[in-house]
Write a structure and sequence with these properties.
39% of the residues lie in helices and 14% in strands. It has 190 residues and is α+β, with helices and mostly antiparallel strands. Helix 1 runs antiparallel to helix 7. The N terminus is likely disordered.
Length: 190
């Protein structure tokens, strides 16, 4: 079932509003909010596959001069960009188009979910289990502190930016309480 993109829920905006994060809601040229099935772009930079953040400017048309100005302002303010309207000029600057959807999957019956996976995915899961990889939902806010330093190390190694720790704490407070989201941690026991 295709649902609203969870990145645009009210709770997500509250999370991004904490301590100076800059949310932008995506609008079309008539001012209508775009929620699901949007055309999005990602930078053609090594190790950066998806641009995170919340939205971008709702402008109906881009001249090259205007696009350069927008990108420069985002760079100076260290804002993260996605959700531009599809414009051919963007590809000149290393953006690539992809379609983004959020799906909500009922996992109450793990056996039924397992049957729906293709053979390649089932084998990958079995291999990960045999190799000592497992995932568990974080049950306490304090567990975020335990894993955040690992996230920082990974970000340094792969040269990408991560949100501050209070971002994850706010996800916990806003979404966990309303049972809309959970944070999972993968661990290797080998």
């Amino acid at each position: 079932m295709k649902m609203e993109n969870i990145h645009l829920t009210e709770e997500y905006v509250k999370v991004w509003n904490c301590k100076g994060y800059k949310p932008f809601m995506v609008k079309d040229s008539r001012g209508n909010l775009l929620v699901s099935g949007r055309t999005m772009y990602k930078f053609g930079i090594p190790y950066v596959t998806i641009i995170g953040g919340l939205g971008g400017p709702g402008i109906s048309d881009y001249s090259e001069k205007l696009l350069k100005e927008i990108l420069n302002r985002y760079r100076v303010r260290k804002l993260v960009i996605y959700d531009f309207h599809e414009r051919p000029i963007l590809e000149k600057y290393g953006f690539r188009k992809y379609i983004d959807y959020t799906f909500i999957i009922d996992i109450s019956n793990i056996n039924e979910l397992w049957k729906k996976l293709n053979k390649k995915n089932r084998n990958a899961i079995r291999f990960a289990e045999k190799s000592g990889v497992y995932f568990e939902a974080l049950e306490k806010l304090e567990q975020i502190n335990e894993i955040y330093h690992l996230f920082i190390e990974q970000a340094k190694r792969w040269n990408f930016k991560i949100p501050r720790k209070d971002y994850f704490e706010n996800i916990w407070k806003e979404m966990k309480v309303k049972r809309k989201s959970r944070i999972f941690c993968g661990e290797f026991k080998g």
